[in-house]
Amino acid sequence: MTDDGKTRIRFAEEADAAVIARIHMTSRSATMPYLPPQKRGHEQVTRWVQDVLLKLCRTWVAVRDAEIIGYAALDGDMLEHLYLRPDVRRQGVGTLLLDEVRRHSPDGVSLHVFQQNTDARAFYESHGFTVLDTNDGDRNMENLPDMTLRWTPNSVQ
C-alpha cells in the first residue's frame, strides 16, 4: 500500500513508540555530534516514549509510504521535540510537522534549542521564531548552552 510518496501527519499511537524512539536516537546522533554519547538503549528510549512522551505531550508523526519519518511533541505551548529521520531532512517534513503544531497552539509556540544547533536555529528562525533568551546550559540534562525561541501568530518580522 503506498500513498504516492505524499507525507501526511497524524496523531502518534502507542504502536509507534519503537519507531519514534529510533528516529529520536538516530536524529540526535546524526545532527548533534557534540552531544554526550547516548547512555540509554533503544528499549529504554521506547519505554520513555510510551510512558512519558505519549502520555504528557500531544505527539504527531509524519508518515510517507506507510513509514514514520519524523515526529513532533507539544506539551502545552512548548515544542518539546521535533525530529526527523536523517535521510528525509530538507524535504519539507519538518515544516509539515511544525505547521501541525502551530495549528494546535494558536496563541504561539516556544521551544529550547542548543546554541550549537545552527541548522535547527536557522529552520525555526525561517519559520518566524525569535530568540527570547539564552542560557548557559543549567536547565538541560546535557549542560550545553541553549536558547528559548518563540513564535507568536501575526508577529511582525
Automatic annotation (TrEMBL):
GO molecular function: acyltransferase activity, transferring groups other than amino-acyl groups
Swiss-Prot/TrEMBL keywords: Acyltransferase, Transferase
Residue span, N-acetyltransferase domain: 7-152
Pfam families: Acetyltransf_7
Keyword Acyltransferase attributed: yes
The keyword Lipid metabolism is annotated on this UniProt entry: no
Protein name from the UniProt record: GNAT family N-acetyltransferase
